[in-house]
Amino acid sequence: MTEPAAQPAPEPRTPDPEPAVKPRPDRSLTGFYVVICILLALVCLGTWIWTLIPKWPFDAEEARRRQVEASERLGLPVEKAVDLGDGVVMELVLIPAGSFKMGSPDNEAGRFYNKEGPVHRVRITKPFYIGKYEVTQEVWEKVMGTNPSNFKGAKNPVDNVSWNHCQDFLKKLNALVVALPHPHPSPTGRGSKGEGLFRLPTEAEWEYACRAGTKTRFCAGDADGALADYAWFEANSGITEHPVGEKKPNAWGLHDMHGNVWEWCADWYAYDYYAKNPKDNPTGPAAGKDHVLRGGGWNYNPAYCRSAYRRTVSNPRTSMYDYYFGFRVVAECAGP
Predict the structure, then answer these.
(1) Of the candidates 267, 266, 248, which has an alpha carbon nearest to the alpha carbon of residue 257?
(2) Is residue 40, in this structure, part of any structural domain at all?
(3) What's the mean per-residue pLDDT of the chain?
(4) Model confidence over 29-76: pLDDT tens digits?
(5) What is the mean pLDDT of residues 275-287?
(6) Cβ-based neighbours of 295, under 8 Å, separated by 6 or more
(7) 43-75 core/surface letters (b: 16 or more CB in 10 A; e: else)
(8) Do residues 295 and 305 make contact, with C-beta atoms less than 8 angstroms apart?
(9) In which band, very low, low, confident or very high, does the pLDDT at 258 lie, cut at 50, 70 and 90?
């Protein structure tokens, strides 16, 4: 039997080549980090811009925070007592710099004519002290030696004073505080630019202090009924003025900014001044025939006691209505 022919040995099989795998490119994190950095930069920029935007209106908590921050930055107290001697003291409150919208909109209830517009943004660039109360009769008498008031009372606001009378008082007050033997009592000492010397508030300072962060008709809101806790006016005064400080203060801690007696401001009046006044620290026209009073009085209705209401009176004033008129003082602060 013939043996089968030998079969050639099979060639060793070459394993199939593995499928080619494309190398994965390294994932660079550079782009990711760039995006994150851009986002962070935008957040920081937005935060910085936000700090530059004037925040108004604001509430009582924010008002107090601003006062404390200004006090710490300046090294000055939030409240300052100025001792005039013989137990007579003037109390002042620190008002921080800031901005607000001055005037009233056309549709504000009780708005009179066009003396209160247009509404415009005003910036108060430096903090200042303002009287916690209207100047009292005991303070006036200590400085002037007389008491012209119709409604007598040591703690009542002085009344029956003209704008010119106020200027005489301020000159004597500044001379008095400079001459007192104890450490200089003005809020910041005497500076080359008048810091620490007393004067009337400008209209802008007065309204900024009165509003205390609000944009409503009164510091307590829009309703006439809200005024009763903060002001002596026609409905609750008994047709007489009252001792200062008996009503609630506004968010800055100021009493009787609404009602009790009208308060003189430093400014001359011009009907078109609001439309063209400077944004920073407006002081009123350079000249005029009328000065401005603010705040309303004890026998006026709420519309006259609004934060934006402006009463204009020729100077000097000799009318019987002078017994409605008083004032409070301002002292400028040194420093930023």
Answers:
(1) 248
(2) no
(3) 86
(4) 676 666 676 777 665 454 444 444 558 999 999 999 999 999 999 999
(5) 95
(6) 206, 210, 256, 257, 258, 259, 260, 261, 262, 263, 305
(7) eeeeeeeeeeeeebebebeebeebbeebbeebe
(8) yes
(9) very high
Report residue 227 CA to chain centroid gap.
20
Please give the residue range of the domain that contains residue 242: 77-332
CATH number, domain with residue 227: 3.90.1580.10
262-268 and 290-294: which strand pairing?
antiparallel
- Residue with tokens 């811009």, as numbered in its chain: 49
**Full-model pTM:** 0.82
DSSP assignment of 184-249: P-STT---TT-TT-EEPPPHHHHHHHHHTT--SSBTTBS-GGGGGGT-B-TTTS-SS---TT-SPP
Q: Is 32 within a domain?
A: no
- Give domain status of residue 63, yes or no: no
